[in-house]
From TrEMBL:
Organism: Dichanthelium oligosanthes
Primary localization: membrane
Record's keyword terms, sorted: Membrane, Transmembrane, Transmembrane helix, Transport
Taxonomic path: Eukaryota, Viridiplantae, Streptophyta, Embryophyta, Tracheophyta
Protein name (record): Equilibrative nucleotide transporter 3
Molecular function as annotated in GO: nucleoside transmembrane transporter activity
GO cellular component term, pick one: plasma membrane
Subcellular location: Membrane
Membrane-spanning ranges: 21-51, 57-77, 168-188, 200-219, 225-249, 261-284
Membrane topology: Multi-pass membrane protein
Record carries keyword Transmembrane helix: yes
Record-linked InterPro entries: Eqnu_transpt (IPR002259)
Annotated family: Belongs to the SLC29A/ENT transporter (TC 2.A.57) family.
Domain of life: Eukaryota
Amino acid sequence: MPCKEEDPGLPTAQGKHLGIFICWLLGNGCLFGFNSGTATFAGVCTIAAVFGIAEVLFASISCFFELLCVVIYTFVFPKLPIVKFYHYKAASEGSMTVNADLAAGGIQGNSNPSAEEGPVFHERLSSKQVLLQNVDYAFDMFLIYTLSLSIFPGFLAEDTGSHNLGSWYVLVLITSFSAWDLVGRYLPLINRIKLTSRKGLLAVICSRFLFVPAFYYTVKYSDQGWVIMLTWFLGLSNGYFTVCVLTEAPKGYKGLEQNALGNLLVLSLLVGLKFGDVLDWLWLIGKGW
């Protein structure tokens, strides 16, 4: 039979051999990476380790400067003369406004003749004095986040025992902690269940360290349901006690003292976070690494 003639209108295949050669090169390139010797593998691991160490160092430096900023803002910034000047200026203007309002209502604000010389201001407590009066509250914040971060998320993500949820298990635990932490932050709005006793807060917050043996033995001997329930209580107590401390501590102080106390409590919180991150590694002891 005569051969079928090609349609001259169809494009002709060009570069076929060049395409085959390029695919051959690409294939060899992939195989070389998987079948190289020890030196290449060590080089890749070294590069990965360098980037990992650099990331850890960057995070550590960032946390250090964050803590440094909080310390400077708490202890150094309020002592600057320009800051004190504007604080007193604001207080003076506020005092004059109040006296003017009282005078407009027919009430004599101050019958002391020396008041014409200017309002008398009471010196605010220093940050050190505020801290000494609220050491227990600062210690509360430190303990709350040291305990929480020593378990969440590292332990929950790496050592959660046997379960049937597969890769969803860790996601369920982290979501449970976050959701119940949010719930716990709104519970103090109910006055009947809000804990206001300073000694009571310290005692109950210290008792939260019972979560450590509870998680250890639950993961080792129980199933996933008990671990999820413990995670609920961990998140709930974290949010609840945080709000209780932050709302009770500033009571009885002036505005500037409240600001100083708030900064001190945040500093305690950040230090607790860092200690919790360090303690999180203790769960890996005896795991064969």
